[in-house]
Amino acid sequence: MLRLNNENTEFNSFPRFLKSYANYLSAIEGKSEKTICEYLLDLRTFFRYMIMIESDQVMSLDELEQISIKHLTLDDVNRIDTQLIVDFLAYARQDRHNNNSTRNRKLSAIKSFFRHAYNKKHLINKNPAADIDGIKMNKALSKYLSADEAVNLLATVSADTESKTRQRDYSIIALFLNTGMRLSELVGLNVTSFDRELTYVKVLGKGNKERIIYLNNAAKDAVMSYMRIRLDPRFIRTSDKAFFLSTRQQRISPKTVQWMVKKYLEISGLSAGGYSVHKLRHTAATLMYQSGKVDIRVLKDILGHEQLNTTQIYTHLVNKNLEEAMDNNPLSDVIIKQPKSYSAED
User: Fold this and answer.
1) Distance (Å, rounded) from C-alpha 289 to C-alpha 85?
2) Known catalytic residue at 316
3) What sign for the dihedral angle of Cα 154, 155, 160, 161?
């Protein structure tokens, strides 16, 4: 697994200029380790492709994965032109079968690196990625639970009296549905993330940016019920301040949360809808916006989006609902042919 330290063998397989770039992203831009690793892996694929093209050989995907980029230099980077990047994106689509979202992620990594090397550090004499537009995305409307389905899901968890983790699981799902926090934000919560009165919770979002989410009555009640269990002397561990614990009294893992949510969705009869942990976040955001009482800019801050256009998907969801409401009008298919009208001249 790639880790950002010199003791990691895989990290040491990158050339020095890429390791310096990774350190810059971490120390100056505050990017998360996950984001930086994704950038590095995408850049490694790109540089492997460059080496393959320059060798004038056709390689299989397995052969490409064996190419080492450790000895690449900035002189090699200076040879890259815009066409090579465009060709790589075409290769990613045709040979690697990457969808638009994945190719946009690769392009973002490439653009970020060249912007750093040219604009920030002046290590190269041109930025070949500067004028490449992002790949057009077809905005898919996110799946979400209706208010009744969300209540049904919570009731299912509450009724599972045989579960030893019922109150923990209820608190987790209630937080997803009422605050719209991310999975990574939820598993990262500590006991000290909540204020004494449970008025708000501090979460650590993307890019290690902290934000405050205020708790409504339902979220507060769910947290309070689990807090009594969490603060029981049996569960207080000086070495672990995690709020949500596993059955082994360790910080709960994302996979455990995903498994738990999937289990209760199936019990609730909602698994056929393709719902997931992330869809619970979408549910919270959609229901808040559909209420008509939450401004899109406020929703942006609640969800921790950097750009407003990321939050705009929820306006599309509402517009889609309005369109469907019009189509469901009983008169929507009643078309009565009008008799031909004649003008006065006829």
Assistant:
1) 39
2) no
3) positive
Spot the catalytic one: 19, 111, 262, 305. Answer: 305
Cα 39 from Cα 24, distance rounded (Å): 13
Structure confidence at residue 329 (pLDDT):
47
List 44, 106, 168, 182, catalytic entry? 182
Return d(Cα 167, Cα 244) in angstroms, integer: 11
Is the distance from CB of 217 to CB of 198 less than 8 angstroms? Answer: no
Question: What is the token pair recorded at 52?
Answer: 């393959």
Specify the pTM: 0.56
16 given a catalytic annotation: no
The alpha carbon of 120 is separated from its chain's Cα centroid by a whole number of angstroms, namely: 27
- Chain segment 174-209, per-residue pLDDT in tens: 999 888 888 989 999 999 999 998 888 888 887 777
Helices (H), 116-164: 147-159
pLDDT at 276: 73
- 208-223: b (≥16 Cβ within 10 Å) or e: eeebebebeeebbebb
pLDDT at 53: 94
Question: Is 230 annotated in the active site?
Answer: no
- Give yes or no: 122 in active site: no
Q: Which of 103, 106, 220, 281 is catalytic?
A: 281
List CB contacts of 169: < 8 A, sequence separation 6 or more: 157, 160, 163, 260, 264
* Residue tagged active-site, from 206, 251, 262, 263: 206
Low-confidence ranges of the chain (pLDDT < 50): 141, 319, 322-326, 328-332, 334-336, 338, 343-344, 346
Contact residues for 206 (Cβ-Cβ < 8 A; gap 6+) = 32, 35, 182, 304, 306
Beta strands 200-204 and 210-214, pairing class:
antiparallel
What does the longest C-alpha to C-alpha distance in the chain come to? 95
Q: Which of 41, 33, 42 is nearest to 4 (CA)?
A: 33
Q: Per DSSP, what are the bridge partners of residue 204? A: 210
Q: Which amino acid is at 6?
A: N
pLDDT 10s digits, 12-36: 889 999 999 999 998 888 888 888 8
Which residues are CB-contacts of 341 (< 8 A; sequence separation ≥ 6)?
Answer: none
